[in-house]
Amino acid sequence: MLEQRVFAMEDVAAVRALISGHGWATLVSDGGDAGPVVSHLPVILDPEDDGVVVLGHLARRDAESHRLGERQAVLVVQGPHGYVSPSFYRAGPYVPTWNYVVAHLHGRPEPLGPEETYAVLSATVDHFEAVRPKPFRLADVEEYGRRIAPGTAGFRLVPARIAAKAKLSQDKPAEVVERVIRALDEDPVHARPELAAAMRAARSTGPDRRA
């Protein structure tokens, strides 16, 4: 990923918020002669760490393909994103682009044992169910849960390097940014309210990096 100062997301709290709020990730590792190994999986933050440490699980056969613990990998967490039409700008000349928030966590995932994996499964369910009026708990079906859990493999990733990017029109004049935000809130075809909210937050908290 091209890393540019104007779009760099360096604040640990912002990276944590991205992972916590968008827990669907892509794990990429080197599969040797077979080519890259790519899997998609839910992730959560390690509740015992206040940094950027991630817990995840995937099908055991996927984990074996990645050879967890043996190979370096990249975990990609995608946040809000969307198409930005030149018509949003009402100025120019401009061309279409895509705004997005993403984090790449580079490191060697540490495989977890059966009990630790079950704890990750339980914590993952708790995280995503927390917003529901009557949250489901894995403990409600513990016998069944423990019967199928061996088909999964948990891991813990302490990133050796984090490359996080929030490309949210920070390189555009303030009046243009405001038009893009309004369009992403209201456009009948390309509305992305969550992306508009991210741009609004970046505008209010981030420094002007156009220089």
Automatic annotation (TrEMBL):
<dbReference type="InterPro" id="IPR012349">
    <property type="entry name" value="Split_barrel_FMN-bd"/>
</dbReference>
<dbReference type="Pfam" id="PF04299">
    <property type="entry name" value="FMN_bind_2"/>
</dbReference>
<protein>
    <submittedName>
        <fullName>Transcriptional regulator</fullName>
    </submittedName>
</protein>
<dbReference type="InterPro" id="IPR007396">
    <property type="entry name" value="TR_PAI2-type"/>
</dbReference>
